[in-house]
Specification:
InterPro entries: DEAD/DEAH_box_helicase_dom, DNA_helicase_ATP-dep_RecQ, DNA_helicase_ATP-dep_RecQ_bac, Helicase_ATP-bd, Helicase_C-like, Helicase_HTH, HRDC-like_sf, HRDC_dom. This is DNA helicase RecQ. The chain is built from 28 helices and 16 strands. The chain is an alpha/beta fold and 663 residues long. Helix 2 packs parallel to helix 3, helix 15 crosses helix 17 and helix 19 packs across helix 20. The protein is globular. The structure holds zinc ion. The site of zinc ion has 9 residues, from helix 13. Zinc ion (ZN) binds next to helix 13.
Length: 663
């Protein structure tokens, strides 16, 4: 910051001021905070230092501006900037507007030396900015808006998945990465924590139902890397500044894009690639509508909230670039409709699979069950489960019983959830939501509306272009040193810096100082211990070649995303088949229909790959089908199938035709 004088940062959470100040001090920047956690004499010392202009940054809570002593101190010094952290709190358009926060405005106006420049943090919408400008009488040219785009964040929307299963798969794919999972309710947070803990994940939780002590402990455990995952309601993390949060998962849709972007924005503050995943289900919409209805807002404000909710719902359904959608929402001038290339829509990570037939089977099953049951009972019937409840209700007699027995119950339930997410099937709310057909279901049943499902793979872990074991041991060293000093680990060095050390393996002080994030001050305080760790590691790895750096201040090389499997889809299925997997297994693993997998195998055969046909038919069957084909005027699949009645299924007939070059 080029301004002369002191920057005053107004921050709503006193518990985090210390961390922010520690981080600045570790970089050799004079910073302090004033809040009620300090003793009277400590406050006095700091105020004297502020008055003497010894600080570049002063952090204070809004209430502090009611203190005469504090106001007297800051009246004495040149103020470079007043910055509002979590600026939305100040505006009546903010989603968690706090009247107490707004009360600092008249106090600020009393300052003879109030600077014309105001900074606002990233989640202020145009509404909020305009509101604050009016309150403080600031011209637009004096508002610094920190840019909205965060080009290290990849947004993902995931629909129609079983949420707990998805989360577990994600965490397994991303071990030891720090992340936050936001849930909509305390109960969700409690349940999910139990589930994950049982499976051995390192989890803390944070919500308003816990005591202040429990919350403090959870937060500290997360910041100090004792727990890697935080499960929290939106009560968590106001102003949290842990830079190496690698992912944010929203377990349910938040109410507004502002809230979403603010929470998602807690990921990747160190600039490293991070994933922001929103798990969408239609029930989320009901919950948010209910919350708006129950609120004490007047009609105009309620209308405003509904509009914002609709924008959030549209985000979950857009086919366009998710980053663009968000920037557009905030009217960010920087955007301009270029696709980000990172989000789940841009990368088209999803595979489009025709599930019209399965959808019809599901819908007709719901109908046959008289629309009286929920997802899990319906899935059981389709699977052909003979559990007690199914027999008790006489559901084994239905014509749809076992009609999808080739799928697992979980895969069936996922497809039902997908139909609900796409509003092709409705749910009646209640303690046990039941499935019901709607007007769109009819279109699907009558074949007017084909159904395509997009399968969303788990975002993959960034491929390491550094020595992972060294990185792990540097992290341990950092944690030990941080614990000794009672500061969060990231205050020493952030993950990006440790990765760069593990990549370039500096052996001297000079080499160490070329690493991004290692300045003179940091080196003086912590550098040697890390240098020694690298030297020791190199002794045990004499064969490792160091990558050459082009110049000392070159930014780190672009990260290599793990290459997606670029072989054609049918070749992937074929290879799996050749390795001994059955068609059904491949269908489940690749989240496709069996028919799709079959057509992949047949395509591979036409490409010249051998197929063991005896898996599909024996010589008798082949002869019978070829005879039938010879004897029909219309050698097409359907009439052939009708001729051969129930003896052979479509797959067998197709296989014979493909093998003999008729298809
Ligand atoms: Zn995009």
């Amino acid at each position: 910051m080029a301004h002369e004088g002191t920057a005053i940062i107004i921050s709503p959470l006193i518990s985090l001021m210390k961390d922010q100040v520690d981080a600045l001090q570790a970089q050799g920047i004079a910073a302090t905070y004033i809040n009620s956690s300090l003793s009277a004499s400590e406050q006095k010392t700091r105020l004297a230092d502020i008055e003497a202009g010894r600080y570049k940054f002063v952090y204070a809570a809004p209430e502090r501006f009611e203190s005469g002593r504090f106001m007297a101190a800051i009246k004495q010094i040149p103020i470079a900037l007043v910055a509002f952290d979590e600026a939305h709190c100040i505006s009546e358009w903010g989603h968690d507007f706090r009247p107490s926060y707004r009360s600092i405005i008249p106090n600020l106006q009393q300052l003879p030396n109030i600077p014309v420049t105001t900074a606002l943090t990233a989640t202020a919408t145009s509404d909020v900015i305009a509101d604050i400008q009016t309150l403080l009488q600031i011209d637009s040219e004096h508002v610094i808006k920190t840019g909205f785009e965060r080009d290290n964040l990849a947004f993902h929307i995931v629909k129609g998945k079983n949420k707990p299963t998805y989360v577990q798969s994600f965490l397994t794919e991303h071990p030891e990465e720090s992340g936050i999972i936001y849930t909509a309710t305390r109960k969700q947070a409690d349940t999910l924590k139990d589930q994950l803990e049982k499976r051995g994940f390192s989890v803390a939780k944070y919500h308003a139902g816990l005591t202040e002590d429990e919350r403090k402990q959870a937060q500290a455990a997360f910041i100090h890397d004792d727990k890697t995952i935080m499960i929290a309601t939106n009560a968590f993390g106001m102003g949290i500044d842990k830079p190496d949060v690698r992912f944010i998962i929203h377990y349910a849709m938040p109410m507004t894009i502002e809230a979403y972007y603010q929470e998602a924005g807690r990921a990747g503050r160190d600039g490293d690639h991070s994933d922001c995943i929103l798990l969408f289900s239609p029930q989320d919409v009901q919950l948010q509508k209910f919350l708006i209805e129950q609120s004490v807002l007047d009609d105009e404000k309620k209308q405003h909230e509904y509009q914002k909710l609709q924008a959030m719902i549209n985000y979950c359904h857009t086919q366009g670039c998710l980053t663009d959608y968000i920037l557009d929402y905030f009217h960010d001038e920087v955007s301009g409709g270029k696709n980000c290339g990172r989000c789940s829509n841009c990368r088209q990570l999803q595979e489009r699979v025709d599930i019209t037939e399965e959808a019809q089977m599901i819908l007709s099953c719901v109908k046959r069950m008289d629309e009286r049951f929920g997802i899990s009972m319906t899935a059981k019937v389709l699977k052909g489960s003979r559990d007690n409840r199914i027999r008790q209700f006489g559901l084994t007699k239905l014509s749809t019983f076992g009609i999808l027995s080739a799928y697992t119950e979980k895969a069936i339930a996922e497809r039902i959830q997908f139909l609900v997410a796409e509003r092709l099937l409705a749910t009646r709310d209640g303690k046990y939501p039941t499935l019901q057909l709607n007007q769109y279901s009819v279109d699907v049943l009558t074949g007017k509306h084909p159904v395509f499902m997009y399968t969303a793979p788990i975002p993959e872990r960034e491929q390491a272009d550094y020595q992972e074991d060294l990185f792990a041991s540097l992290r341990n060293l950092r944690r030990t040193m941080a614990d000794e000093q009672g500061v969060p680990p990231y205050v020493l060095f952030n993950d990006a810096t440790l990765k760069e050390i593990s990549r370039y393996l500096p052996e001297t002080k000079e080499a160490m100082l070329t690493i991004k994030g290692v300045g003179d001050k940091k080196y003086e305080q912590y550098g040697e211990a890390f240098l020694e760790a690298v030297q020791a590691w190199l002794k045990t790895h004499p064969d490792v070649k160091k990558p050459v750096r082009v110049t000392s201040h070159q930014p780190s090389p672009p990260k290599q995303e793990k290459q997606a499997d670029e072989r054609p889809s049918h070749v992937i299925s074929y290879t799996m088949f050749q390795s001994g997997k059955s068609i059904q297994e491949i269908a489940l693993i690749r989240d496709m229909t069996s028919q799709t997998v079959e057509s992949h195998l047949f395509k591979a055969f036409k490409d010249g790959h051998p197929i063991a046909w005896e898996i599909f038919f024996n010589t008798d069957a082949e002869a019978a089908i070829l005879t039938a084909r010879h004897n029909t005027d219309e050698p097409k699949l359907k009439p052939l199938k009708e001729m051969l009645s129930d003896t052979y299924d479509y797959t067998t007939i197709k296989a014979v035709l493909v093998k003999n070059g008729f298809m």
